[in-house]
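Hi everyone,

Forwarding the result from last night's run.
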Amino acid sequence: MILRELTPLDKESYEKYYNSWKNEEIIPKNTDLKIYDCFEDMVEKLSLSKMNKTNLLVPNTTLFLFHKSEILGAVNIRFRLNEDLEKHGGHINFGVTPNARGNGYSRFMTRYALDYLETLGVDKVLLNADIENAPSIKTILTHNSVEIEPLQEGERKVRRFWINRH
């Protein structure tokens, strides 16, 4: 297994990944082709996202978990938080395709993301999960997280956790 950025050569693998979500919302949301003009546009914008400098968009990277040519999931790693991400997103957002769940892939991606953030000097990491998303909460809890006050977002309730690396 390897975590890496998408390239234009990954189009066929991405199409299979995209179709595997069926009627579920793709997580991380920035890996959903619907928000881009085309696959190549998505690859380019994800690559450029490391340089975001506005308060609206923070610098981040999105890595896809590959096993051979199959994409099993993705993780979006935000290098810092803005006011909105402190409430709604956190530093790390991960998703595993429905057919690959239950194999520890989210734990693997989260550990990688925590290590990646540590190399950037981020030693206090925020993760959020929908209150009904027990697998994500379980993943977050395996990383010595400390739960803080939950947030209500309309009808959606979000549990929030800090992970201190030092």
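Residues 60 and 78 are 4 Å apart (CA to CA).

Cheers,
N.
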